């Protein structure tokens, strides 16, 4: 199961670390790049509501394999797009396939979680962050060796396809979450809506860091390509460390405290990253941001997946539709604001999302019925 999270993180991490190159190659402004990234959000938003029904019919195992394969096939074309008009539909396919992959692997992860007495979901998400680090590190190495972005992403996708197939082969049987009682798609209301809004805020923050970290280091602080990619990779590694430690932290301290403290750390790290005109200190700030972001989404996904009265994948599909719309739609908003103010100001505004999560951590934790 962890292999699927790794593949998703590595594929996205490699492409995101190349965003400064795409911006420069196509001579895009921040707002134009933001508009292109908006198509990823549209891809996720228009296809993720179908994920619950697909999982009910085929099982999360095959949804993860099919969508993950499409994602790896499409990613190299992001590097090959000759214009903004071609880039936009390619990014739509990236968003659509990544959205289905996310719902599939998270639904299956909850089935695996049900077989363990202690929380393990944060550790699984940790492998997504390890993948992000591997993708960023691979981009930095490719830039250092003079390998072109298209060649790098083609090779990376082929290697990751092998990991994907091996990971799917080790997953639980296909019928583990094909059936379930309750509606197959949950309209966002009540507890689903509340969790969806919090996931929206968390993933807006995570999406902003993923898509704009390397661009900020390259554009605002004039870091070299490999340094900008390294900064993104280090933020992903920091997130991985936080997620691997998150299950034991949650077990000791409870969901409410972990949610609150993580949200506050995320906001503080982001403000540090964009308010100091120093590449090393900015990288430290993004690393703290990654550490804070680490456990927000796993906890909120766990709450959504265990809502009573919904079939497997339905509550999670509804919440992730809202959340991943923000993950992919937040960066375009950042780009729009950055073009009219500055990238530092636009990223700094994301800190207010983290404050809202901290203020609502008690309500989110209550849905998990942990007694904390």
TrEMBL record:
Q: List UniProt keywords, sorted A-Z.
A: Membrane, Transmembrane, Transmembrane helix
TM ranges are: 36-55, 62-87, 126-147, 154-172, 192-215, 227-245, 265-288, 300-327, 333-358
By its UniProt entry, which InterPro entries does this protein fall under? MFS_trans_sf (IPR036259), MFS_Transporter (IPR051788)
Of the GO CC terms on this record, one is:
membrane
Question: Where does this protein reside within or beyond the cell?
Answer: Membrane
Superkingdom of the source species: Bacteria
Name-wise, this protein is Major facilitator superfamily MFS_1
């Amino acid at each position: 199961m962890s292999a699927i999270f790794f593949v998703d993180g590595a594929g996205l991490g490699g492409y995101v670390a190349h965003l400064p190159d795409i911006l420069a190659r196509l001579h895009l402004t921040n707002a134009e790049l933001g508009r292109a990234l908006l198509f990823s959000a549209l891809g996720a938003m228009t296809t993720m509501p179908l994920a619950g029904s697909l999982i009910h019919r085929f099982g999360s195992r095959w949804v993860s394999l099919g969508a993950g394969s499409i994602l790896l096939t499409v990613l190299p074309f992001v590097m090959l797009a000759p214009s903004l008009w071609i880039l936009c539909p390619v990014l739509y396919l990236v968003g659509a396939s990544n959205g289905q992959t996310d719902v599939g692997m998270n639904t299956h992860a909850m089935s695996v979680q049900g077989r363990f007495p202690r929380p393990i979901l944060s550790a699984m998400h940790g492998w997504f962050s390890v993948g992000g680090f591997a993708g960023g590190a691979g981009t930095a190495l490719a830039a250092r060796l003079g390998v072109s972005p298209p060649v790098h992403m083609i090779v990376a996708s082929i290697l990751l396809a092998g990991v994907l197939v091996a990971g799917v082969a080790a997953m639980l049987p296909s019928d583990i979450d094909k059936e379930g009682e309750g509606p197959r798609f949950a309209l966002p209301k009540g507890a689903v809506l509340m969790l969806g809004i919090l996931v929206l805020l968390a993933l807006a923050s995570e999406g902003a860091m993923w898509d704009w970290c390397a661009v900020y280091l390259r554009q605002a602080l004039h870091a070299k390509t490999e340094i900008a990619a390294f900064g993104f990779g280090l933020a992903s590694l920091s997130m991985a460390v936080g997620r691997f430690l998150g299950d034991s932290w949650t077990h000791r301290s409870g969901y409410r405290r972990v949610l609150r403290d993580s949200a506050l750390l995320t906001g503080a790290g982001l403000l540090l990253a964009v308010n100091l005109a120093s590449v090393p200190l900015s990288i430290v700030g993004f690393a703290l941001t990654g550490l804070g972001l680490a456990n927000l989404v796993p906890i909120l996904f766990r709450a959504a997946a265990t809502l009573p009265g919904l079939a497997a994948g339905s509550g999670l599909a509804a919440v992730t539709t809202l959340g991943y719309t923000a993950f992919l739609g937040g960066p375009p908003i950042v780009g729009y604001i950055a073009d009219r103010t500055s990238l530092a100001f636009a990223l700094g505004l994301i800190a207010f999302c983290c404050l809202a999560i901290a203020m609502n951590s008690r309500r989110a934790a209550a849905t998990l019925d942990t007694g904390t």
